[in-house]
């Protein structure tokens, strides 16, 4: 008998006969639990509950909001090994990666607890004699949070913690593949003392429950992370219905890592391995394009392949594993089809690319390294979202920058160089929301703004103090002595 996990609506855990079996991608015989799928009418109840809870929650003291968020952060941190294990079991990243992600979620709650206290405004002089002006920030109302599978606790954490810190109520719809971390997070926030209705969990399909949130008249804003096509559809729904919703969309990436002749080889190889292949390449900030200049090219490729020889692909919970499985069968098929596309386009598959058998049935894929990739090939242009990396050879820095920017995306961009001149120029001219010098394109700090440009993102940044730009609305008040 598998454990049943319900939805959370207006402070009640609600069971359902319609269930989603949560399967471990490292061992498809392992069922983590049965998670209730919400119906459309339950999602509607969740929105109403959030709407009803909003007047009181938005007027709670900052201290009360701080204490709830801080208690949640403390519990997440104390349970990081157990929750990290759950995360690795349902998503497939390695146990150290899973524990690291849970630790990050705890840090986000602790930081955002402080934001509840730090939220302030400005006082200015008005233009009329005796007139004062105040600019303050108020919560938006009900926020729909729609999250992807690749960071099952960190992404919900940075959206939920920010929404709550600034006084909003939430209906949260996690990705179908990772309900376990979502359920655990909501149950922690319930225990931390959130009043009923402030945070509601509706697990279920994007096309029904997610779409309902994006068109619902009582949802004021949507924060979404996921794929580009879904993001585009959500954007149209948010402005095309009865209400014009505020939205924040974090979507794909095709992030370049430029390696110049003067780079430290060790640093460049570690950046490429970490950014390209860790977390099974399933990060929106992954370095899926390595853009390498002529003189270092052969040494760099040889060194990357030597490192790939040392990496173990296997069960996410085994201590010897460096790279866990692909998240599910559909994503594995996508990865394999792009490996075929790369071969058919004339790129050279220099390393890996085959599926692997392990003791348990799972979606194990060798990392794939393609060389002789041209900028116009699909494997250089489209987000694959797997451990498949394209290497593009260029003559020098100017060509490297042009190739790096030749993409519809603009999330993260990295350069490995010891030249101050090129590092400075790259920071100025890379068309990306995040630029890294001698660091992996992945791996971000929770107190700094996160988001991209071009086709990668739409709307204000997430994380840090910048989260206030999305989760609050500005009010300008004028007053004179009566
Ligand atoms: O994303 P989706 P999925 C990319 C990556 C991956 C692909 C599919 O390329 O292969 O997306 O992943 C909900 N209205 N990224 O299927 O479909 C859905 O239920 C409202 C990149 O997870 O975009 C889930 O909760 N919501 C990305 C969320 O949207 C809808 C991270 C994301 O689902 C909806 C993850 C609808 N019509 C995947 N349809 C990154 N770059 O960070 C679906 N959803």
Describe the structure.
The chain is an alpha/beta fold and 482 residues long. The chain is 40% helix and 23% strand. A 7-stranded mixed beta sheet has the order 15-18-19-14-13-20-21, sandwiched between helices. Helix 1 packs across helix 7, helix 2 runs antiparallel to helix 4 and helix 3 packs antiparallel against helix 6. The radius of gyration is 23 Å and the shape is globular.
Provide a compact summary of the structure.
The protein is of the alpha/beta class. The protein has 15 helices and 23 strands.
How many beta-strand elements?
23
Q: Main β-sheet: number of strands, strand sense, barrel status?
A: 7 strands, mixed
Given the C-alpha coordinates, what overall shape results? Answer: globular
State the helicity in percent bands: 40-55%
Mean pLDDT: 97
CATH topology of the largest domain: Aldehyde Dehydrogenase, Chain A, domain 1
Spatial sequence of strands, sheet with the most strands:
15-18-19-14-13-20-21
CATH homology group of the largest domain = Aldehyde Dehydrogenase, Chain A, domain 1
Oligomer: single chain
Number of domains: 2
- Each distinct ligand: ligand TXE
The count of helical stretches stands at: 15
Distance between the termini: 70 Å
Our estimate of the beta-strand percent is 15-25%
Write out key terms for the chains shown.
482 residues, alpha/beta, Aldehyde Dehydrogenase, Chain A, domain 1, Aldehyde Dehydrogenase, Chain A, domain 2, 2 domains, 7-stranded mixed sheet, 15 helices, 40% helix, globular, binds ligand TXE
